[in-house]
Amino acid sequence: MLLKMSPKTRTDDTDLVRRIRAGDALALRLVVERYQERIFALIHGIVRDAHEVEDVAQEVFLKVFTRIEAFDGRSQFYTWLYRVAVNAAKDHVKKRVRRPAVALDEADALPGGAEGPDAGAARNETARLVREAIDELPVRYREVLALRELEGLSYDEVATVLGISIGTVESRLHRARSRLKRKLEKAREAS
Amino acid sequence: MMYDDRTIWRHLDGEMPEAEAKAFAEARVKDTALARRITELSEVSAAVRGGVPKPPPDFAARVVARAMKGPVAPVLPLDEARRFLRRVVVAAAILAAVGVALFAIKILPSLVETPLWAWDPLGK
Q1: This prediction's pTM
Q2: Is the Cβ pair B50, A110 closer than 8 Å?
Q3: Chain A residues closer than 8 Å to B15 by CB
């Protein structure tokens, strides 16, 4: 899942952007296929409801198609795309009426390797606790966490996408992770 | 040397300068408590990365299909109101046109029968 753009990908993006500007639907399809998993991950990191991710992701890619003129080419395309996705996810969180339950059964399975059932259960329990803790985080913490952990962006890239300083990125990340860690520690003490 | 969580995160994120990273790696080998803390924080990262939903297989095709349909903005209550208002305006325009046509058919011939210079609207 971690993202690092190769120079070739960046060149391809430039070409795809040119074609989308010309109304080429195939180019849009290629962009969607290239970025859909990352955009799903990023949106989920902010929206936190698996049922709502697809709608927001569609909105993001349609914006790419209809508002490609807003991309001025001064930054990398993926930086702009992530900004569009973060803004769409944040708008969605602001607008929605919160649903009472978040079904994330599919999220319970983390890659376990050759571990025994106890270790696997403990890992799933850790994942569940971390998810609960992320749900409770303010959006400004979720967005940095998602861009760093799910997209693998550097602090500098996260700062560019969000339009904040590197220092702010680092401090928000630290606070977010500290909350997650404290939640885990409390849960472990309680058990 | 004691490393705080923030420093450990910078190491895990690959944001540590080379010289500091080298010293950190050496400390990690010697200091079992530090190694354990790194493992704990790594577990938090791994858990954050878990449980991400995948796009359905036809997602790209559906996005393209929607893009090709044209306007893609969601229908808002305001849009509905505008659409209703437009229908009212069109209906009013049609009624006005019918009125003008009736006027032309029924009233105008009687006016034409009387020459304009002889027309006396006050009946004097």
Answers
A1: 0.71
A2: yes
A3: 154-155, 170
